[in-house]
């Protein structure tokens, strides 16, 4: 494609253009070719009307959700991003390991300069050694609410090589949010603690559904037509910013077969719990009586005294193709009324705890063994805290106006470094002393031991007040190439008791164990699943509980590690994991791609600072 020679102002939208590279595969295997799959993503604002209100939504190629990228394991992906929006942005390929390719990870001022309005950037990466459902999203501020889409990787040997019965059809189910507020303003409001932004509706594949209406006219809902007896593979993605969701379909069960593009032992359940950043592949067998069944997605939230948001449920419909026939001749009740599932309570956190705890990895040819030996151990508390406005060291806290609430790891709230060059470039060109001077080491453990999950800490009070003061810094942790790292994420109750879906870029994590309350190594290490743990890029830290993970730091580069609740990112629940180079070609970070842009003067714009204090 003659990308670069296009006259200014014209944009060719190549959707899924495929070039064949070469045949790969074992002799005798069906000839599968690795290809280059090429897309053009034009990001711009389009008018969309929901709930009686016209909104300028920032989307890719005019679509919400954006286009799905569908590839085969081993393919290369090229995406030309054309930024016609008024915002700086980058795109992150969530869950793609980007082995030796941190340059394409899409984190502004860490791996690249943000793509400024009216500029372009081309991402090139491969999806070797991964199969399943991943996704892509903007990695700037709240923009990912509308700038996201599925990234589906199919096995090179075809659908018959799935470690489960071959589905009749595959269906992406993207749970998201509809916002009529300016997304940058929402982000700013949370950082400054001046407004409490909230979305207006939940969505399934961009549709709000019939629980929402505008002067009597109900919103469109997502409709899935099924044929009786067939099996469907639902590729479920939670692209929402604010909540974990419960997903149910009346009269049906799911068999979960993969999570975060890693196969799991088949797990049959009538409810799926999916937190922001997670993906779940689940088989749905159309084995109910012909009819119409609601598919309901309900956002859960921690109970009072945590702050409460409105309950914005969304629903679509699963409809059997033989419904009419059966109703006419089969003597079944003929009705258009769809059956509703019974949903968990919005404050039910236990269903999610068990759902996540029931996922185990599947032994199959590509699965990795859990390393038994650990080189580095981190115990990381997650929670809220506060810093004084205007850099003061003391001030009135506990939700007083003199302080701002922030989100922390081991009492540090992440601060974007004030650099004009992305950190990865500084690191690569051996200006590490310069990088190091900007960073604060993320400590191995919190500054003090306390009863982390004491519910008395949720509301401001004397106990809580002692724990609240925190500081801001660019927190980072360096790992030697190949180090086996064990992290225990401990949720805390300080000012809020939310769960935290923790996402690590560039690596998958083995989920060894989870528990309620405080982690206790003597009691909990013997419970580690070292045999078949689930492998995830986003690990769910339960409300007032903990989770223990292990990963191998073998992908050189600088990787974001953060909570996938967007308000927690804005508030600073982020750290950088720096994986050092090794000494062999497959363990050190190659030079940036030849056409990698350097930041212009206007590039020391860290983020979209449209809303100064
Ligand atoms: Cu899906 Cu750093 O994010």
Automatic annotation (TrEMBL):
Keywords: Apoplast, Copper, Lignin degradation, Metal-binding, Oxidoreductase, Repeat, Secreted. It is found in: Secreted, Extracellular space, Apoplast. Binds 4 Cu cations per monomer. Its EC number is 1.10.3.2. The keyword Secreted applies. Its cofactor is Cu cation. The keyword Iron-sulfur does not apply. GO terms for biological process: lignin catabolic process. One of its GO terms (cellular component) is apoplast. Residues 43-157, 170-321, 443-582 form the Plastocyanin-like domain. It is an enzyme of class 1 (oxidoreductase). Pfam families: Cu-oxidase, Cu-oxidase_2, Cu-oxidase_3. Lignin degradation and detoxification of lignin-derived products. PANTHER family: LACCASE, MULTI-COPPER OXIDASE. This is Laccase. It comes from Setaria viridis. The lineage of its organism: Eukaryota, Viridiplantae, Streptophyta, Embryophyta, Tracheophyta.
């Amino acid at each position: 494609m003659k990308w670069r020679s296009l006259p200014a102002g014209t944009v060719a939208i190549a959707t899924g253009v495929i070039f064949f590279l070469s045949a790969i595969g074992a002799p005798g295997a069906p000839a599968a070719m690795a290809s280059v799959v090429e897309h053009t993503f034009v990001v711009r604002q389009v008018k969309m009307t929901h709930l009686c209100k016209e909104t300028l939504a920032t989307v890719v190629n005019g679509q919400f959700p954006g286009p799905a990228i569908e590839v085969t394991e081993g393919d290369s992906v090229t995406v030309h991003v054309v930024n016609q929006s008024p915002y700086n942005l980058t795109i992150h390929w969530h869950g793609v390991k980007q082995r030796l390719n941190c340059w394409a990870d899409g984190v502004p001022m860490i791996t690249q300069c943000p793509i400024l309005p009216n500029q372009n950037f081309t991402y090139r990466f491969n999806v070797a050694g991964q199969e399943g459902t991943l996704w892509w999203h903007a990695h700037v501020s709240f923009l990912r609410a509308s700038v996201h889409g599925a990234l589906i990787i199919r096995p090179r040997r075809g659908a018959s090589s799935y470690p489960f019965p071959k589905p009749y059809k595959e269906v992406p189910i993207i749970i998201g949010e509809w916002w009529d507020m300016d997304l940058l303003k929402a982000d700013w409001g949370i950082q400054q603690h001046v407004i409490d932004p909230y979305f207006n509706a939940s969505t399934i594949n961009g549709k709000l559904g019939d629980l929402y209406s505008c002067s009597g006219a109900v919103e469109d809902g997502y409709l899935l037509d099924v044929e009786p007896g067939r099996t469907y593979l639902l590729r479920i993605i939670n692209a929402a910013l604010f909540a974990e969701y419960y997903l149910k379909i009346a009269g049906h069960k799911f068999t979960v077969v993969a999570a975060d593009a890693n196969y799991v032992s088949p797990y049959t359940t009538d409810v799926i719990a999916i937190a922001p950043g997670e993906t779940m592949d689940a088989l749905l067998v159309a084995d109910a009586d012909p009819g119409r069944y609601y598919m309901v997605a309900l956002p859960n939230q921690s109970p009072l005294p945590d702050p409460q948001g409105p309950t914005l449920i969304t629903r679509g419909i699963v409809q059997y193709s033989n419904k009419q026939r059966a109703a006419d001749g089969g003597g079944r009740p003929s009705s258009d009324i769809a059956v509703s599932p019974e949903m968990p309570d919005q404050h039910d956190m236990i269903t999610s705890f068990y759902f996540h705890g029931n996922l185990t990895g599947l032994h199959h040819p590509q699965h990795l063994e859990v390393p038994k030996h650990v080189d580095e151990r981190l115990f990381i508390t997650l929670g809220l805290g506060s810093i004084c406005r205007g850099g003061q060291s003391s001030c009135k806290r506990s939700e007083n106006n003199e302080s701002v609430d922030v989100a922390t790891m081991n009492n540090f709230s992440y601060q974007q470094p004030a650099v004009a060059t992305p950190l990865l470039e500084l690191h690569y060109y051996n200006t590490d002393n310069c990088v190091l001077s900007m960073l604060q080491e993320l400590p191995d453990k919190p500054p003090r031991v306390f009863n982390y999950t004491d519910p008395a800490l949720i509301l401001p009070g004397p106990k809580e007040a002692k724990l609240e003061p925190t500081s801001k810094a660019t927190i980072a942790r360096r790992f030697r190439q190949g180090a086996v790292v064990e992290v225990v994420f401990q949720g805390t109750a300080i000012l809020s008791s939310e769960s935290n879906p923790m996402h690590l870029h560039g690596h998958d994590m083995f989920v060894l164990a989870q528990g309620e309350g405080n982690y206790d190594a003597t009691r909990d290490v013997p419970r580690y699943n070292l045999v078949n743990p689930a492998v995830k890029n986003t690990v769910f830290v339960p409300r007032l509980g903990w989770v223990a993970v292990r990963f191998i730091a073998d992908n050189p580069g600088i990787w974001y590690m953060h909570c996938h609740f967007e308000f927690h990112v804005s508030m600073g629940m982020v750290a950088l994991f720096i994986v050092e180079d090794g000494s062999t070609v497959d363990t050190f970070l190659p030079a940036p791609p030849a056409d990698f842009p350097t930041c212009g003067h206007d590039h020391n714009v860290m983020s979209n600072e449209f809303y100064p204090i």
